[in-house]
């Protein structure tokens, strides 16, 4: 078995079923799909029982378990593939993604292959990505990947004991993103090598950062905390970190000048979250208590 695809899911049964339907079109046929269902109900479980896909499908129901990183690690316990990847429960893989990733492993002799998020036209979404193919290093790890377009050799994933379950969406901490950068940095520190190619991409709903509502701003705060925490815990310098603070703070200023105050609030949340996470990561201390915010929106502070 070449590939094990592991989806950790909560609250998106229709999206998971769409992924199962579209993954049938992969030109690489040597893969298995493992679904880790964190839903408390049986909606997805009942739907999966009716399926007869042309590939091995494994299902694990873990109601009450939360956290994408925890779910992925649980799914890996069932995996038998030589390579592993972790699609989001609402992403879609183009037909050649697995074959293209496999070709990069063979051509570059690496342990990690990274791609990007794009819309149907190939335009970057949900992040900033390097325009040229290149080795993955500590200097570019935040611009050469997104979690659901990371492919690992089995030995590399096992070599760092999988994802840190305290980092990532749904974790019990405040660090709600960048579990991908964290695991890749741990792999690089252990001597594993990675390669990024912008020609390798897949699709995902685009986050609305142009007119974000309060929910999106709170989500951005959690994601930013995750980024700051990973930067801090891995020893990135204050100068390196400052570029990300300046970028988001500058976004807040520009949004104010354009009278887009919801977007300005969004960037203030990003700025504050990055600072909170970085300070805690540098101290390697107990995470901030929920509610220990540097900046609160009026509706949250009330």
UniProtKB/TrEMBL annotation:
Pfam families, alphabetized: Glycos_transf_2
Annotated TM spans: none
Domain Glycosyltransferase 2-like as annotated: residue spans: 4-121
Keywords: Transferase
Protein name stated in the entry: Glycosyltransferase family 2 protein
Keyword Transferase: yes
InterPro entries the UniProt entry points to: Glyco_trans_2-like (IPR001173), Nucleotide-diphossugar_trans (IPR029044)
Superkingdom of origin organism: Bacteria
Key word Transferase present: yes
GO molecular function, one term: hexosyltransferase activity
